[in-house]
Amino acid sequence: MAEVTYLEAIRQALFEEMERDPNVFCLGEDIGAYGGAFKVTDGLQARFGEARVIDTPISEAAIVGAAAGAAHMGMRPVCEMQFIDFISCAYDMLTNYVATARYRAMLPCPMVVRGPSGGYVRGGPFHSQNPEAAFLHTPGLKIVCPATVSDAKGLLKSAIRDDDCVLFFEHKYLYRRIKEELPTGEHLVPIGTARIAREGRDVSIITYAATVWKALEAADQLAAEEGISVEVLDLRSLQPMDDEAILATVRKTNRVLIVHEDTRTGGVAGEITARINEQAFEWLDAPVLRVTAADVPLPYSPPLEDYVLPQVADIVAGVRRLARY
Amino acid sequence: MATAQRTQPRGGLDAAAKLELYYYMRLTRTLEERLVNLYRQTKVVGGLFRSLGQEADAVGSAYALDRDRGDILSPLIRNLGSMLVQRARPVEIIRQYMAKGDSPTRGRELNIHYGDLVRGFIGQISQLGDMVPVMAGVTLSFKMRGEPRVGLVYVGDGATSTGAFHEGINFAAVQRCPLVVIVENNGYAYSTPLSKQTAVRDLKDKALGYGIPGEQADGNDVLATYEVTKRAVDRARRGEGVTLIELITYRRKGHAEHDNQSYVPPGEIERWERENDPIDRYVAVLASEGVSPAELAAIDARVQVEVDEATDEAERSPMPEPRDALVGIYADPPVVDPLWFRAGVRSAVETHERPASWGTHDG
């Protein structure tokens, strides 16, 4: 099997699920004839037709709301946000309507909202966001953030088959930068199970999405230069969050660094820290530390963006501090 | 001959159907009057929303749907009558208002905020306009599957100012979804009159901006609301897409029962009550077609019994079990008890307490 990119893995997942289940359909801006701003849906409309690969008006609230309505009736819509930054235009629909539907009205919402998230690409304030924390706060939504090619495919297939709404945050930095040989046959990755990306014994890094790769780079450097053994836990999904995997790595290394690309205040790291504090305080040998973006809108110019976003050197410094604590 | 007169069709409705319209309007009003009593007895937990004076537009429009074909409507807060037409039961409504554990939402949602896809009505939320995109999607699924079903979504005059209304109706228009959008223009959005809501004189004209037909009708004439909606439903079922209908009516009560309507010009409410009550008007129509007062009185009596029985049944209903608040957020429930932490600090320590190896990892 040839290696495929993260982007191709996503396209494969969409193709396979649309082939498998006639209730699956895609809707979004420029996804049909044009194939999407990043070409994720390239070829989909040619294969499945305009009725199942729908080019919509610029209406994120209508895209999500219509998906919810179709999902109630047994369809399995997959919405594309052209950039995930635009998901905030559908924030009301997602948090007030979709997230509450099953609870308040027993209305199923088997739907996916997917799109390119994240920075490191000089996208500026409106093409680089990481919106996960805003939605983690809303019961009723699931949140998936794949870091690898095989996870991108396997988790998206699981998301499409899930009976609830899954927000699927693809990382645009990874779209064409990583490649992997995918398993043959049906490839599904369950939502809610973290993955140990690297085994280690001295310090744990808990992270997800693109910063998994930064963490792995930092771990290599620390092993080679200082003999520090770093474990990297890739959460894969934030809701549900794999508490058992988090607690297991805490019990193993007793030192934890949480890394995410999103801003610091109110970010996911705070939630993970609280869970460790509540359930594994006795196991800690050092305070839980965070490496995150600075609390600013993400700037465009390379020296500014590089300074704001977490870099390998920041992670190395954080691990060193924990190792010496 | 009275009989001959009575079978004279208007809007294609026979005599039995016309009496059914009367029944639903009367049921709406009587049920709401009962809810007012329960509210004053503090048995209604939240606010109470009336549709007094709007019964005709709710009932007549919903009646134009085909329940046997699986048409679906999305009601608004003043569409109790529409839900009753779709076979919502009075006991469900009273249980909802009284926050009972066996209410359709098990005490999770208020008032008439509930739905049943089988009977063909869908639970609304409070964010106005949001049901328009949702119903665009419901009807998109009808179109995609080639089902001959139609959707109907109600919004008020105020909701036409929202982004969701615009996005939803535009989306549905582009996709030619089998959807009817009814704007119930009752003059006020809470306290805000139409003149402060929009510079448009006739809300039906908003249809022009979406490239769809716009119609306007007297919302207090139940047969007129039925007829205009039926035309739009038939168009939608024929695959001709979305219609926007403005029904002119008037909200005689406040936004909710607590609202003293201080913003309403003196005499306005009384004038509508005196000159344009939808039930009074319809009674006159039925009388002119030969329906006897005794026939209507029999319906009134039947409605009274139904509402009495529903009240008794709802009063006997239990309040919800507190722990029921925690289930049903996801299809597959989480493994961890969401309130594990209430067991206290000891439980966390006992479950996860570290063995003797303080200060080092266990590896």
General description of the model:
Chain A has 2 domains: 3-181, Thiamin diphosphate (ThDP)-binding fold, Pyr/PP domains (Rossmann fold, 3-Layer(aba) Sandwich), CATH 3.40.50.970; 195-324, Rossmann fold (3-Layer(aba) Sandwich), CATH 3.40.50. Chain A is an alpha/beta fold and 325 residues long. Chain A is globular and about 60 Å long. Chain A has a 7-stranded mixed β-sheet, with helices on both faces. In chain A, strands 9-11-10-13-14 form a 5-stranded mixed β-sheet, sandwiched between helices. The model of chain A has no long low-confidence stretch (mean pLDDT 97). The longest helix of chain A has 16 residues, at 211-226. Chain A has helices at 6-20, 44-48, 60-72, 91-105, 132-136, 149-161, 211-226, 243-253, 268-280, 302-308, 312-324; strands at 3-5, 24-28, 53-55, 76-80, 112-117, 142-144, 166-171, 179-181, 195-198, 203-207, 230-234, 237-239, 256-263, 289-293. With 363 residues, chain B is α/β, with parallel strands linked by helices. Chain B has one domain (2-326): 3-Layer(aba) Sandwich (Rossmann fold). Chain B has helices at 2-6, 15-40, 55-62, 80-85, 90-97, 131-145, 163-175, 194-197, 222-237, 268-275, 278-288, 293-316, 345-352, and strands at residues 72-74, 151-156, 179-185, 188-189, 192-193, 214-218, 243-248. The longest helix of chain B is centred in the first third of the chain and has 26 residues, at 15-40. Residues 1-8 and 356-363 of chain B have low confidence and may be disordered. The interface between A and B is large, with 57 and 53 residues.
